Structures are given as structure tokens and as C-alpha cells.
Amino acid sequence: MLLLLTFKVDPDLFQRFEEYETRALAVLAGYGGEMVLRLRHLDSSGETHLLSVPDRDTLSAFLADPECVALQEAYADALPTPLVTKVAILESGQLPR
Questions:
Q1: What average pLDDT does this structure show over 42-52?
Q2: Residue 5: which residues within 8 A CB-CB, separation 6 or more?
Q3: What is the pLDDT at residue 91?
Q4: Are 36 and 2 in contact (CB under 8 A)?
Q5: Cα separation, 6 vs 67, whole angstroms
Q6: Record's superkingdom (predicted)?
């Protein structure tokens, strides 16, 4: 399952946001998930991530993981709520179903 997450990050908190990212991605890897692509917005307003996770149940387990919950609490000041969209990669010229 592919998820596109768009974060609006306070420019003064990017370092803390990146610290959270590094630690959270290590936990996500334990669930078979990974960051496929990371894009920094050129206007410094945030980042967009393409994440891959095996399925919805795995995502739910990751989000409920005590280490993940503790990270979200510890970095709450630097962790805005993302806009999350389930997406698919299309071949060039392919129309979505």
C-alpha cells in the first residue's frame, strides 16, 4: 500500500521534524514499511513523503506501537498532522482505474 503524506512544517522546527522522521522510519522498517520518496517543498513550507507499507493492518499496528506513540508525544511540537492520501504508481500514459 502506498501513502502520500504532506506535512506543513514550521521552518524553525525542521531539525526536530527530521529527528522524528529518522527515529520513526526505523520503527516503520520493523513492520516492513519504508519511505520510497521524500520531497522538500522549495518554499520551505514542508515536506511530502511517499511511504510503502504492506497493508492497512500493518499501518495500524505501526501507529499503535508503543515506541511510535512515544515518539509522536516527544516530538508533538514539530509533528504537524499530515494530509494522507492512498496512491498508486501509474505507468507513463496509464489512466487511473
A1: 93
A2: 48, 49, 51, 82, 83, 84
A3: 80
A4: yes
A5: 22
A6: Bacteria
Grid coordinates in use for 27? Answer: 520503527
Fold of 2-87: Alpha-Beta Plaits (3.30.70)
Q: Which three cell numbers stand for residue 80?
A: 504537524
Inter-axis angle of helices 66-74 and 56-64, nearest 10: 60
Q: What is the mean pLDDT of residues 36-53?
A: 94
**Widest distance between CA atoms in the chain:** 44
CA distance 22 to 31: 15
Spell out the SS3 assignment of 20-83: HHHHHHHHHHCCCCEEEEEEECCCCCEEEEEEECCCHHHHHHHHHCHHHHHHHHHCHHHCCCCE
